């Protein structure tokens, strides 16, 4: 069937580009025109996973920055997404565009614009400095997803629960939260992967001190050892692919993309 | 926390629609705007100020348009602008068309199998740095495709393989961005296809619309409002992407973001205002394109409606 062929072609197109890096990571002297390496080796993996190597440090930086960015962006995106999704009000279109603008402006422009000021404020080369700049591209995604969720949300249920005597806190816990949970997970997932993927903002504001995986990856790649680069790309991709597996069953249900902004 | 009984007596049932006259909804946007606006607006304002030549660190305290003048007189700037614009338009157009086609092609499988749906989204969370490195070793002259070409007897030496990375046509850059963005658009489209579109399509079908009429007059008009903003984001991202052209592009002319970074990190601090001017120009180009595009989409949609 046609759709079956399309399915196979698409999956191949998505997975195939990653194959060379995986082969390289397990190969020794894998040169043109070998299709498969003459000699397999775990050398690169031993180096990359060594306890005293930079990988674990970079992994830790990537995780703590992304977790902080996720938590903070959800915190500010929740009320914003609710306002944008639930109601129509004057100036909504302008505000929507305002929230989206950080996704339009090149990250390089933000990075070099803030450079000197962040150095002066002592934020350059610090954890919080990097978290702050990651919030710029992460928050709009969280707001977008949550606006989509609240567009399909019936706020009258909250009023009904209040009428029945539930406190605001209980309303949030037992009415709002269960209804928006899938959306919240997707919004958090997006904020996490946006932070996880940042390169130039981290490079410029992190000033070589906040060495996340993408920063380590580019400097490793310029070192020229393809096997080590290959192993490091897998280490960098794996955590977010696993997260995707955990979050993906919510993607369809959350109705991502129905925001219609 | 406080006794809930008293509260409930004072609570009037609220209606979510129609709108109250004095609506304070916009207040809820404040936390997000407080994060986004000062940081982001500050970045742009600082770029504007520094682009006008105010840069006390190296003793420049005057305001003038020298940086813009020298940027616009720089031949590389125009070549880079052309390159970045071409990349962005190509990627936005192709990923929108291919993404919608992909969504229509796989909507049945997507609906039926969660596990297979996972495969379509697999590269969604993978950073562009990884995608770019993957393309180097897939499309490069000693990459996997070149090796397959050799095995098939099409080429003898690596140098015979056409340059697909670091090439003047930016094919490697476009390939990487499409690899990420076609599934992105497809997932946005699938969100619509799985929810609203189905009902309208079956109504149209029961009224006797052919499958082609349904696609043209029902499915596509429903997809546009969700896909249009996504394709604007794709355009903006392709235009502003830094690591992808850094790892896959020619060194001359380089994409605008790479040029901006190079000017910014130049040892000669006096060219910094030029880097800032470039940051400002890039931001303006993207914003203007986005606004024009969204206005155009709204016009087209309005004409669609009777």
Largest interface (C-beta under 8 Å) = A-B, 112 and 116 residues
Would you tell me the structural class of the helices and strands of chain B? mainly alpha
What does the overall shape of chain B look like? Answer: globular
Strand-residue proportion of chain A: under 5%
Q: What's the total count of β strands of chain A?
A: 2
Number of H/I helices of chain A: 12
Structural class of chain A: mainly alpha
Helical proportion of chain A, percent range? over 70%
Q: What percent strand of chain B?
A: under 5%
Write down the overall mean pLDDT of chain B: 85
Topology:
The complex is a heterodimer of chains A (261) and B (306).
Chain A: H1 2-15, H2 19-25, E1 27-28, E2 39-40, H3 43-49, H4 54-86, H5 92-104, H6 107-120, H7 127-151, H8 156-163, H9 168-197, H10 200-206, H11 213-223, H12 226-254
Antiparallel strand pairs in A: 1-2
Helix pairs in contact in A: 2-12, 3-12, 4-7, 4-9, 5-7, 6-10, 7-9, 7-10, 8-9, 9-12, 11-12
Chain B: H1 4-10, H2 30-51, H3 66-72, H4 75-112, H5 114-121, H6 128-139, H7 144-151, H8 171-206, H9 211-240, H10 243-248, H11 256-264, H12 272-304
Describe the structure.
The complex is a heterodimer of chains A (261) and B (306). Helix content of chain A is 76%, strand content 2%. Chain A is mainly alpha-helical. Chain A has a two-stranded antiparallel sheet with strand order 1-2. In chain A, helix 4 (54-86) crosses helix 9 (168-197), helix 6 (107-120) packs parallel to helix 10 and helix 7 crosses helix 9 (168-197). The longest helix of chain A is centred in the first third of the chain and has 33 residues, at 54-86. Chain A is globular and about 75 Å long. The two termini of chain A are 36 Å apart. By secondary structure, chain B is mainly α. Chain B has helices at 4-10, 30-51, 66-72, 75-112, 114-121, 128-139, 144-151, 171-206, 211-240, 243-248, 256-264, 272-304. The longest helix of chain B has 38 residues, at 75-112. Mean pLDDT of chain B is 85; it is low at 1-21. At the A-B interface, helix 1, helix 2, helix 4, helix 5 and helix 6 of A face helix 1, helix 2, helix 4, helix 5 and helix 6 of B.
């Amino acid at each position: 069937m046609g759709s079956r062929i399309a399915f196979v072609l698409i999956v191949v197109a998505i997975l195939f580009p990653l194959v060379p890096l995986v082969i390289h990571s397990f190969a020794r002297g894998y040169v043109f025109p070998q299709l498969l390496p003459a000699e397999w080796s775990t050398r690169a993996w031993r180096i990359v996973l060594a306890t005293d190597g930079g990988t674990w440090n970079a992994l830790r930086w990537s995780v703590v920055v992304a977790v902080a960015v996720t938590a903070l962006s959800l915190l500010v995106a929740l009320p914003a997404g609710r306002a944008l999704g639930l109601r129509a009000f004057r100036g909504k279109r302008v505000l929507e565009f305002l929230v989206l603008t950080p996704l339009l402006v090149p990250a390089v422009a933000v990075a070099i614009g803030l450079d000197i000021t962040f150095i002066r404020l002592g934020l350059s080369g610090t954890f919080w400095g990097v978290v702050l700049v990651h919030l710029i591209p992460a928050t709009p995604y969280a707001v977008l997803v949550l606006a989509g969720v609240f567009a399909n949300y019936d706020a009258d249920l909250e009023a009904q629960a209040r009428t029945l005597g539930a406190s605001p806190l209980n309303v949030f816990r037992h009415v709002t939260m269960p209804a928006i949970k899938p959306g919240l997970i997707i919004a958090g997932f997006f904020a996490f992967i946006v932070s996880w993927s940042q390169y130039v903002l981290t490079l410029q504001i992190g000033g070589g001190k906040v060495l996340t995986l993408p920063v380590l990856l580019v400097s490793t790649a310029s070192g020229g050892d393809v096997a080590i680069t290959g192993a490091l790309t897998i280490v960098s991709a794996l955590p977010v692919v696993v997260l995707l597996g955990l979050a993906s069953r919510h993607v369809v249900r959350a109705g991502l993309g129905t925001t219609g902004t | 926390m406080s006794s809930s009984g008293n509260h409930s007596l004072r609570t009037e049932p609220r209606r979510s629609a129609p709108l109250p006259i004095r609506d304070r909804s916009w207040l809820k946007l404040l936390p997000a705007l407080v994060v986004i606006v000062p940081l982001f607006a500050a970045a742009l304002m600082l770029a504007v100020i520094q682009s006008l030549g105010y840069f006390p660190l190296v003793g420049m305290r005057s305001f003038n348009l020298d940086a813009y003048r020298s940027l616009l007189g720089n031949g590389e700037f125009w070549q880079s602008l052309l390159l970045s614009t071409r990349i962005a338009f190509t990627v936005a157009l192709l990923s929108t068309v291919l993404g919608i086609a992909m969504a229509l092609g796989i909507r049945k499988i997507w609906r039926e199998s969660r596990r297979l749906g996972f495969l379509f989204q697999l590269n969604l969370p993978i950073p562009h740095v990884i995608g770019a490195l993957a393309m180097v070793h897939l499309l490069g002259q000693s990459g996997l495709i070149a090796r397959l070409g050799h095995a098939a007897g099409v080429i003898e030496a690596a140098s015979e393989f056409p340059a697909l990375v670091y090439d003047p046509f930016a094919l490697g850059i476009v390939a990487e961005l499409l690899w990420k963005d076609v599934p992105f658009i497809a997932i946005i489209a699938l969100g619509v296809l799985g929810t609203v579109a189905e009902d309208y399509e079956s109504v149209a079908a029961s009224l006797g619309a052919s499958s082609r009429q349904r696609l043209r007059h029902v499915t596509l008009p429903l997809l546009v409002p969700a896909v249009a903003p996504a394709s604007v984001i794709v355009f903006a991202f392709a235009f502003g992407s830094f690591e992808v052209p850094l790892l896959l592009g020619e060194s001359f002319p380089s994409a605008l973001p790479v040029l901006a970074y190079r000017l910014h990190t130049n040892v000669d601090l006096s060219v910094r205002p030029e880097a800032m001017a470039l940051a400002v120009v890039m931001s303006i180009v993207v914003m203007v394109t986005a606004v024009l595009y969204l206005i155009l989409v709204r016009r087209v949609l309005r004409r669609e409606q009777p």
